């Protein structure tokens, strides 16, 4: 398990910082040999230090301790020290708050070769993927090595043993963030039939509104995949304008003007269907860089819960059947409980183990329905007993309850006269039919 290492928790989450150092525990990933059953990739522990990460609120000097490098530099340590002043990191506070919120931050690093360059070219480039599990911004950073201008020219620098790149005097690999692709909502749940906005954007050092930007959105689900939108946006001075190269699904769009001007690559989707659920990959290409961000889209629809029976009344000792129906919900998993509360008991009793379930029924729109059945007896459920069917589902913030109360039986006299009247009418009918 990877974890985020922030040197101090916030004393109050309401006070964010400006210019805070955030330290992440990461894995440096390289291609392995894959021979004799070995792994295709190797992972080496690494540290990512985001220096002076700009926050949006006023600074508070006593809440976070600045990063202090090791007292003795070690050539085997992989410490990436990143300057982020030239590239905005959206919602950087979520990285700072993750440790206090007990959220895990997954951080991975690997080598990166920009388009049109050689693998061993200098400056060297690396790519870092940062994801906050349980909610928060997702980031893909392109890092570029920078020289240490403060180093003494007559003292040879310490070389990192794995990367064979010069380290700073304090033992870190100095880099700067030159390109970032991000999503403020890497996981999104949206109701069936509604519209959705899949957030994606980018920031770049030395960006220009005259540069060309390529945007591709792909969808993947359970082994299937397809490209649903591709745009090639030309710079503002270009006479060719924006060209939509490919559009697979009706009702999807991205704004090429915002893509060039603001770095906004978000995808709008109209009238969501169950088939829209899946993994969406936002890939942005500009200049020498091409990186991506992954967004998970979950489609939801809460069940319509109701009982077939309007009331329950026992006239004899015969059991009666209750039917609870959950109609047209998504996703599939649903939990149905039965609860009984008699007038004489202070606590409710679960009857779920005595109930039975129908099979799932899937409708043409992809939603599901399910029914639950329960037989009840008058000896166990006297008048005044409240019987509840409780349904829990991903699309429900709280369980949905439907209840009814056992009514007292009809008075015996009324029941007797009703039976007698029925017998007299039947006898008269037979008498008339026989004449």
Strand segment tally: 28
Helix content: under 10%
Strand line-up of the largest beta sheet: 2-3-4-8-7-6-5
Mean residue pLDDT: 85
Structural class: mainly beta
Give the terminus-to-terminus CA distance.
Answer: 92 Å
Query: Strand count, sense and closure of the main sheet?
Result: 7 strands, mixed, barrel
**Approximate strand percentage:** 35-45%
Low-pLDDT segments: 1-17
Radius of gyration: 33 Å
> Shape from CA axes?
elongated
* Tally of separate helices: 3
Structure explained in plain terms:
By secondary structure, the protein is mainly beta. The protein is 8% helix and 42% strand. The strands form 5 sheets. The protein has a 7-stranded mixed beta barrel. It has a 6-stranded mixed beta sheet with strand order 9-18-17-12-13-14, covered by helices on one side. Strands 19, 21, 24, 25 and 26 form a 5-stranded antiparallel beta sheet that branches. The chain is built from 3 helices and 28 strands.
Main attributes of the structure:
435 residues; 28 strands; 6-stranded mixed beta sheet; mainly beta; single chain
Q: How would you summarize this macromolecular structure in one to three sentences?
A:
This protein is mainly beta and 435 residues long. Helices cover 8% and strands 42% of the residues. A hairpin with a 5-residue loop joins strand 25 and strand 26.
């Amino acid at each position: 398990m990877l974890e985020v290492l922030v040197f101090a928790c916030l004393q109050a989450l309401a006070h964010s910082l400006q210019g805070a150092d955030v330290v992440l525990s990461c894995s440096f990933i390289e291609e392995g040999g894959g021979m004799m059953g070995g792994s295709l990739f190797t992972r080496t522990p690494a540290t990512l230090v985001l220096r002076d990460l700009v926050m949006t609120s006023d600074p508070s000097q006593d809440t976070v301790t600045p990063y202090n490098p090791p007292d003795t530099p070690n050539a085997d340590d992989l410490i990436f020290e990143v300057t982020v002043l030239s590239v905005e990191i959206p919602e950087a506070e979520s990285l700072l708050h993750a440790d206090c919120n007990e959220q895990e931050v997954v951080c991975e690093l690997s080598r990166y070769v920009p388009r049109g360059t050689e693998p061993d070219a200098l400056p060297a480039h690396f790519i870092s993927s940062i994801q906050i599990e349980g909610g928060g911004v997702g980031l893909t950073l392109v890092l570029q090595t920078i020289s240490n201008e403060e180093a003494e020219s007559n003292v040879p620098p310490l070389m990192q043993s794995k990367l064979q790149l010069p380290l700073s005097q304090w033992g870190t690999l100095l880099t700067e963030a030159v390109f970032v692709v991000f999503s403020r909502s890497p996981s999104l749940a949206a109701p069936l039939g509604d519209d959705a906005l899949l957030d994606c954007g980018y920031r770049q050092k030395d960006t220009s509104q005259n540069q060309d930007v390529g945007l591709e959105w792909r969808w993947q689900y359970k082994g299937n995949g397809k490209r649903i939108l591709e745009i090639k946006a030309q710079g503002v001075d270009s006479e060719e304008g924006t060209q939509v190269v490919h559009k697979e699904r009706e009702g999807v769009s991205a704004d090429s003007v915002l893509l060039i001007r603001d770095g906004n690559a978000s995808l709008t989707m109209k009238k969501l269907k169950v088939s829209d659920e899946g993994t969406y990959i936002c890939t942005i290409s500009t200049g020498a860089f091409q990186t991506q961000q992954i967004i998970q889209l979950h489609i939801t629809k809460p069940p319509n819960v109701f009982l077939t029976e309007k009331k329950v009344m026992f006239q004899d000792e015969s059991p009666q059947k209750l039917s609870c129906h959950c109609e047209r919900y998504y996703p599939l998993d649903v939990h149905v409980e039965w609860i009984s509360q008699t007038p004489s008991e202070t606590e409710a009793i679960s009857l779920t183990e005595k109930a039975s379930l129908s099979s799932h029924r899937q409708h043409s729109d992809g939603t599901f329905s399910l029914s639950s059945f329960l037989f009840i007896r008058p000896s166990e459920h006297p008048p005044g007993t409240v019987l509840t069917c409780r349904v829990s589902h991903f699309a429900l913030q709280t369980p949905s309850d439907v209840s009814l109360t056992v009514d007292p039986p009809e008075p015996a006299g009324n029941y007797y006269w009703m039976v007698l009247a029925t017998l007299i009418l039947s006898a008269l009918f037979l008498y008339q039919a026989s004449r």
